[in-house]
Sequence to fold (64 residues):
Amino acid sequence: MYHVTLALFRAYVLLFGKKRTIFGRQNVPDNGPLIVVSNHISNWDPWVVSDLLPFPRVIHWLAK
Fold:
């Protein structure tokens, strides 16, 4: 279900989203452990961060 939802979000962003530039994506490993830390400014942040990481990485979120 995670991959289906993320694929739908990516399709939505491609159709209706702003064009964005990603810097340093080549430094993100394709597999293995990874800790991503971001500022949380909206409820869309988890989906946007998921969209920016290489697919098909499954993300486990930690929230306070």
Q: What stands out?
A: The chain has two helices and no strands. The mean pLDDT is 78. The first helix runs from residue 2 to 16.
